[in-house]
Automatic annotation (TrEMBL):
It comes from Marivivens niveibacter. Belongs to the binding-protein-dependent transport system permease family. The lineage of its organism: Bacteria, Pseudomonadati, Pseudomonadota, Alphaproteobacteria, Rhodobacterales. The keyword Transport applies. Residues 128-347 form the ABC transmembrane type-1 domain. This is Microcin ABC transporter permease.
Length: 360
């Protein structure tokens, strides 16, 4: 097992490098970079993309009158443009910028945000509580509900319970998370009917003044709706995955043999079937956790006015805040790869018969 873990850790390096190279190359061809953003702000323009997507004749006129390669830079001192390029590091060749970036990232030095005057690490730590809340609670609830329900559906396959729960699960899977979030807001957050849950923030403004019990209740009160909205689709997928996995195992000969020997049903299900059927469920944990923890919560964070990592990454991409974009990309890519290794280790605990060392 030790040799396998070392091999997987070594594979993290080229995988992570490939991810960063691909994304860095894409950004080189994207219009509206940070220099153009600052030029637009200096000229009092609200959106740099208005210059980029303007009429063909206007752009040709601007480009013929400008000494700079940036649309909309007319009237600005060329020295100011040069200072901007130096500030953002665009006075260096792309290869040199990429190598410098990766050398800093290896030391977990992600630099400072272009537009927020705060280091990327501090910015991520500031937004982390919201994403941890959505990611951990959603993943925990999805697994706690889906696994027992999926097992129950597999045992009672074809019954009325299986039929009506399957209908509810299909509806839950078909409804997008953001649409379910809008429904929750309308129904329970003062949208049109009831005002039971708050619509904004992770805690109340007077959170620090509350007792310990009051803080727990206030925290749970605020996260109920966003966690439900985030959990709905993953819950449906996990339930069906668990059911189908258990059905495949139940039909195998070793289960029939175990029942023929007179073993109790619980002993058959949880002593033999469970560890085999759960392997495929466990394998989906890294993707589920990372998607909910980072990218999957962007729309939910906007709807419930939560300032988390998903919203941070989205806004950074729009602003071309490259240190934030690449810093978060590097961090969560690394996290996803490490969680994948942890998942393989979990396989061994679930089923000790698995031997990764035998793999070539």
């Amino acid at each position: 097992m030790g040799a396998y873990i070392i091999r997987r850790l070594l594979l993290v390096i080229p995988t992570l490098l490939g991810i960063m190279i691909l994304n860095f190359a894409i950004t080189q061809f994207m219009p509206g970079g940070p220099v153009e953003q600052m030029i637009a702000r200096a000229q009092g323009q609200g959106d740099v993309f208005e210059n980029i997507t303007g009429g063909v004749g206007d752009i040709e006129t601007e480009m013929s009158n400008a000494n700079s390669s940036y649309p909309g830079a007319q009237g600005l001192d060329p020295r100011y443009i040069a200072e901007l390029e130096k500030r953002f590091g665009f006075d260096k060749p792309p290869l040199e910028r990429f190598l410098n970036m990766m050398w800093n990232y290896l030391r977990f030095d992600f630099g400072e945000s272009y537009f927020r005057k705060i280091t990327v690490v501090d910015l991520v730590l500031e937004k982390m509580p919201v994403s941890i809340t959505l990611g951990l609670w959603s993943t925990l609830i999805a697994y706690m509900v889906s696994i027992p329900l999926g097992i129950r559906k597999a045992v009672r396959d074809g019954s009325k319970f299986d039929t009506w729960t399957s209908g509810a699960i299909i509806v839950a899977y078909a409804v997008p998370g953001f649409l379910f979030a809008i429904f929750l807001v309308i129904m329970f957050a003062g949208g049109s009917y009831f005002r039971i849950f708050p619509l904004r923030g992770l805690v109340s403004p007077n959170f620090e003044e509350l007792s310990m019990w009051g803080k727990v209740v206030d925290y749970l009160w605020h996260i109920t709706l966003p966690v439900l909205a985030t959990t709905i689709s993953s819950f449906a997928v996990l339930t069906l995955l668990t059911k189908n996995s258990f059905l495949d195992e139940i039909k195998k000969h070793y289960v029939i043999t175990a029942r023929a020997k007179g073993l109790a049903e619980n002993r058959v299900m949880y002593g033999h079937v469970f560890r085999n059927a759960m392997l495929i469920v466990i394998s989906g944990f890294p993707a589920l956790f990372i998607s909910v923890f980072f990218s999957g919560s962007v729309i939910i964070e906007y709807l419930f006015s939560l300032d988390g990592l998903g919203r941070l990454g989205y806004e950074a991409a729009l602003q071309r805040d490259y240190p934030v974009v690449f810093g978060t990309l590097y961090t969560f890519s690394l996290m996803g790869l490490i969680v994948g290794i942890i998942t393989d280790i979990t396989y061994v605990f679930v089923d000790p018969r698995i031997d990764f060392e035998s793999r070539g």
